[in-house]
Amino acid sequence: MTRAAAIFVLALSPVCSALAAQTQGAAFFKAVRDPVKISRNSEPLKIARNSTIPAKGLKISVPAGELLGVAFSNGVSAVAVGPAEFSVDALTQDAPPSVCAPGGRESHPSKMAVSVLSGKLVFSASDRLERSEFSIKLPAGAVAEARARAVIAEVAPEGARLAPVGGTARIKAGGEIWDVVKDENFAYVAVSASGKAAKPVFERVYSSERRRFSELIKSAEILRGSTFFKLGKDGKFSAETVMPKTFFSMPARR
């Protein structure tokens, strides 16, 4: 970037901030196989190929033997390995005019909250989301806030594990204070018979687990990097992707 261009961008930044408006984020599905169930407010949704729909309130159930990838308009993507279930509790983001968004890609501060109810999920976040908030709710009142390139979340009946990759996260269980989860460390939160979450216990992500998760992280990053959102004049998002047709909804041959 030339000096003149840099000065212009700096001069334009306050204008963009002033013009920015909060908008509801969207979710993009390349393909959804029949066994995958998606609903909103307990109403089942039929998702066509290459669909972009509002993200808030979605509840997604992925059965055993299936994989599902979802891209979100704030630059976050998720890959769920069945059996898994999660919901999108909130997704809002700044949506300034296109002149303020070089490259036509939504990259402005956002607030996103998801609940992982069961199973294994991998989230990939754009490096542009440093000013954004991304929270992951786990069972028994545990919650984590992530600032990492990728986040692994696993929920089983006995408890949950969460690990940031390429960054850090912070986690708390119930009314406990926040604890920092370092890069490539798992925070394990056990759930007692009373339904309360125990204080997080930290453990290193071993090489065998790192290999096991690396392909899922790579898949989530490919989906994120290949899906492009555009906000129309009607305030609705549309999206396009260069991914193969069946890449992100397929049997998990495991």
Briefly say what this structure is.
This protein has 254 residues and is mainly β.
Could you characterize the architecture of this molecule?
- The chain is mostly beta strands and about 250 residues long.
- The protein has one domain: Jelly Rolls (Sandwich), CATH 2.60.120.1440.
- The protein has helices at about 5-20, 205-225, and strands at about 20-25, 25-30, 35-40, 45, 50-55, 60, 65-70, 75-95, 110-125, 135, 140-155, 160-175, 180, 185-190, 200-205, 225-230, 235-240, 250.
- A hairpin with a 5-residue loop joins strand 16 and strand 17.
- The longest helix has 20 residues, at about 205-225.
- It is globular and about 45 Å long.
List the helices and strands and how they pair.
Layout (H helix, E strand, L loop, with lengths): L2 H17 L2 E3 L1 E4 L7 E4 L2 E2 L6 E4 L3 E5 L3 E7 L3 E19 L15 E16 L7 E5 L4 E15 L2 E15 L5 E3 L3 E6 L10 E4 L2 H20 E5 L5 E5 L7 E3 L3
Parallel strand pairs: 9-10
Antiparallel strand pairs: 1-8, 2-5, 2-7, 3-4, 3-6, 6-8, 7-8, 7-18, 8-9, 9-11, 10-11, 11-12, 12-13, 12-14, 14-15, 16-17
Q: Helix-strand pattern, N to C?
A: HEEEEEEEEEEEEEEEHEEE
Q: Please report the distance between the alpha carbons of the first and last residues.
A: 47 Å
What structural category arises from helix and sheet content?
mainly beta
Are there runs of 5+ residues with pLDDT below 50, and where?
3-15, 97-106
Residues in β-strands, percent: over 45%
State the CATH architecture. Answer: Sandwich
Total domains: 1
CATH C-level label: Mainly Beta
Radius of gyration of CA atoms, rounded to a whole number: 18 Å
Here the CATH topology equals Jelly Rolls
